[in-house]
Design brief:
There is one protein chain. By secondary structure, the chain is mainly alpha-helical. The protein is built from 17 helices and five strands. The longest helix is centred in the N-terminal third of the chain and has 20 residues. The chain starts with 5 loop residues before the first helix and ends with a strand.
């Protein structure tokens, strides 16, 4: 350990932050918190980092007026602790700043029983892991308010959990309430409680505009594709990625998992195992998609990985995320998005399904094309189509077209 300026420390920590694999959103927040710390140091003429400087800043954000929320103070404090560990140890391990509390033995037994139940009822491994992670959070909350046995949970505990969601986004609240409802139903089904407590969880509806998914017109997709700089390696990669999502309706995660060996150029097809259902899927390659992939392969960075889509930075690992890049292209395209409509990359999958329905393709063919595990999944896309028709409905007043 030696004298190091705060600015130098933040530069080193920023490099470590990106290597740790944090999401772009998390990196942006942490770096902003470090810049605020640097501004504090500059205003008070502090040049070199020290532990006492860290304590001064934490005291500053804790007692400032107007007061920060407790959650905000906690997050900013964690960011400064990262700098402290960087100074004294040369880095930190992801997750060590805020380790999750251990669950009780009964809670762990419940999670194991839940996994077995979900597997028995045909849920995929991915769904089981997602459910386990979500329910673990609910269990930790109940433990934090003094619940020592699952049979103790009652309507007052449920109300406390619901109130803890105050201030979250509406869509987050709906997801959390749905998760709570599933947890309580599994408690009852697996005999951990003698009452079905799901009736104590309030219903929460988003309303039409917020739950609407963007269904793209062909010219809108073309407008997004035109913003991609196809003269660069990154542009060729991104162009191929978006085309696969738009024309084949493949999930973003499955596109990122695609391997060069998944392409059969003799019969112009692509075959892969789906991450969500673990079922195999084989899709035809159009000339346009095939040409875009070949165009990218000719300039793809040399790497030992077989993954098709790789990052642009050495050692050229598998591409970890594409959602942020897609939204940037959408923003540049000038395409008008309905207020609060979901327009992530996954909306291209909904668009592909809806266009097939509009073209009169049999639901059985669409079911196979999208690689769904059950035909009930198509109801979501049929619902989307109905919602689109509602949005476009003509209004009449006194018999005249408005």
């Amino acid at each position: 350990m030696s004298n190091m300026t705060v600015k130098e420390l933040i530069m080193d920590a920023t490099e470590t932050l990106h290597k740790q694999g944090y999401s772009p959103r998390r990196c942006k927040y942490v770096i902003l918190a470090w810049k605020q710390f640097l501004n504090f140091c500059n205003l008070n003429d502090y040049t070199y980092y020290s532990c006492s400087l860290k304590d001064l800043y934490i005291a500053e954000i804790t007692h400032r007026e107007p007061k920060y929320k407790d959650s905000t103070i906690m997050r900013k404090t964690q960011c400064i602790k990262m700098l402290d560990l960087m100074y004294y140890r040369g880095g930190w391990q992801k997750g060590e700043l805020n380790p999750l509390p251990l669950l009780s033995q009964e809670a762990m037994e419940f999670l194991d029983a839940q996994d077995k139940y979900l597997q028995k009822t045909g849920h995929s491994e991915c769904s089981c892991l997602t459910m386990r992670k979500g329910i673990s959070g609910v269990l930790r909350y109940f433990q934090s308010i003094g619940v020592t046995k699952l049979s103790q949970i009652d309507k007052t505990h449920i109300s406390s959990y619901v109130l803890s969601l105050n201030g979250h986004a509406r869509s987050t609240m709906r997801c959390e309430l749905s998760r709570l409802r599933k947890f309580l139903s599994y408690l009852y089904l697996l005999n951990y409680t003698d009452k079905d407590l799901t009736s104590f969880v309030p219903q929460y509806r988003l309303g039409g505009s917020q739950s609407m998914v963007k269904i793209w017109e062909s010219d809108e997709i073309e407008a997004v594709l035109e913003t991609v700089d196809r003269s660069s390696v990154k542009g060729k990669r991104d162009y191929a990625f978006i085309l696969i999502a738009a024309e084949l309706g493949v999930r973003s995660k499955d596109i990122r998992e695609l391997k060069v060996s998944d392409f059969d150029w003799e019969i112009c097809s692509i075959s892969f195992q789906q991450s969500k259902t673990h079922n195999p899927n084989v899709l035809p390659l159009s000339e346009r998609v095939g040409s875009a992939v070949i165009d990218y392969l000719q300039v793809r960075p040399e790497t030992d990985h077989d993954y098709l889509f790789v990052s642009m930075n050495p050692p050229y690992d598998k591409l970890q995320s594409f959602g942020t890049a897609f939204k940037r292209y959408v923003s540049r395209s000038g395409v008008k998005i309905p207020t609060k409509a979901h327009h992530s990359l996954h909306s291209l999958r909904a668009t592909a399904a809806t266009k097939l329905l509009d073209a009169g393709v049999s639901p059985d063919v669409i079911f196979s094309f999208l690689g769904h595990s059950d035909r009930d999944s198509l109801v979501n896309y049929i619902r989307l189509d109905i919602e689109t028709l509602r949005e476009c409905a003509l209004s009449f007043e006194d018999g005249e077209l408005l």
